[in-house]
Amino acid sequence: MLRSCTAALRTLRALRQAGRRVPRCEPVLARRWFSTEKVIPKDHALPNPSWSKDLRLLFDQFMKKCEDGSWERLPSYKSKYTQKSEDFKTYFLDSKLVKEQLSQAQLFTRGYEDGLGFEYVIFYNDDEKRTVCLFQGGPYLQGVPGFLHGGAIATMIDATVGMCAAIPGGIVMTANLNINFKRPIPLCSVVVINSQLDKIEGRKLFLSCNVRSADEKILYSEATGLFIKLDPEKSLI
Amino acid sequence: MIRRGLRVAARLGHHGALPGGPYILPTFSPASAFGSSMDSLESEFCQEKTDLKNYALPNASWCPDMLNLYHEFLEKTKADGWIRLPSFKSNRNHIQGLKLPLVLTASSDKSDCHIFTRCIKTEGQGYEYVIFFHPSKKKSVCLFQPGPYLEGPRGFAHGGSLAAMIDETFSKIAYLAGEGLFTLNLNTRFKNLIRMGSLAVLNVGVEKVEDQKLYISCIAQSTDQQTVYAKASGTFLQLQLEEDSSQYYTLCLQESLLPTALPTGTHPRAAGGVREVTGEVREKALSFA
């Protein structure tokens, strides 16, 4: 079993290196190889009853854009058991890391019941090196009463910009995030976060992003980000 | 209850009660905001006599580093001028009796809203933090322990969770130091990852207050200060909250203190002069008349 697992991993890596389009996250396959349970993790980047009409409309518009292959919807799981996270663990972490913590851990932005926290889906355009995140912030993300917490917006900007950096860049880490808030975002409204890869200099990836209302008429925030591609030769700790 | 009603009445006092007319966002008036009224800002914020649950207290999930530093700062609250800030479920609890200027009131304002950093209720799973504030030095220390629900890279806290913790600490300091309300800019430079379950100490200071803006900076470090996790700076917009007159009528009704006519004049924390009350309050006044 172990031999077939390693063989499959090697295939996946080879496919990626050959530049073939493979899904970035493979938790379904991974679970079948590494565990006897047939649990299929839930993909949270799909409509659920808490999604407002605006969010669903935008989702449908982008799904249409996916049909010709120029855009890709990125699945999103609560537990980050993905190829990338396993690579991160292998190369960058101390093997003596406390196991209990890892088993309880869940991706920060997916730890809420439907509709209460972050409801979002990210689409990626490989040719243009852009990501678009459709985001609806729920009542558990409040800051100033009636509005979204600045930290929640920062989290989503980090997630969207981070994804935009990670797809071309591999395993990356946020080095800098500079956000200008223009207007407060009302709680439970839908916003569109557009992120763009501006340039790559060695291991540095420079990105920018803006946050607009669903109809694009209101500019809520603008941000720039610097991400660093991690060096597999160097451990993080 | 009666004492509270009278206290609210005294605070609302002479609010300028001519209803109707368009509402004008008051320009911030520093002269009226600072000085003795800052003490009232802190005591209103801290809501000392309250049944609300205070989340900024030690629990079983706090690591030894966090407990030690907590007790160290608690000692400093006795003599060195530090205050320990309480932390309630929602920012609304911190500003009871106050509200945003009406032009900024959002339409969705559900009662089940939680402040972002207090929405993960299970002890130790999300944000465990407590903020200590020194009013005269305008500086603050936040003890922050991220739990497994804040995961980003495996075994470490999500960058967004640290940015959120910094923004949250900034926002409390901005409010207490100078009625800063909205974040205008947040610039975070991440240096090292924070291991889940370990302590990060955020040292925050107000750099300056200028042109209706507060400039704040922070360094997030490990307990022994050997590792810098992040450096950040933020800018906040000063904006005064208004007295929530609708609460005045509710309280008066309960205490049988219905006024026959509203007094005129100014409240010490107002921008000065008679302020026009919004149409919304007028409606409420009519319904109780």
Task: List the defining traits of the structure above.
heterodimer; A: 237 residues; alpha+beta; Thiol Ester Dehydrase, Chain A; seven-stranded antiparallel β-sheet; 6 helices; 7 strands; 27% strand; globular; disordered N terminus; B: 289 residues; two-stranded antiparallel ribbon; 8 helices; 22% strand; disordered C terminus; long-chain fatty acyl-CoA hydrolase activity (chain B); HotDog_dom_sf (chain B); Thioestr_dom (chain B); Thioesterase superfamily member 5 (chain B); long-chain fatty acyl-CoA hydrolase activity (chain A)
Concise overview:
Chain A has 237 residues and is an alpha+beta fold. Chain A is built from 6 helices and 7 strands.
**Distance N terminus to C terminus of chain A?**
32 Å
H/I helix tally of chain A: 6
- Reported CATH architecture of chain A: Roll
Rounded radius of gyration of chain A (Å): 18 Å
Contiguous runs where pLDDT drops below 50 for at least 5 residues of chain A? 2-35, 95-101
What string gives the helices and strands of chain B in order? HHHHEHEEEHEEEEEHH
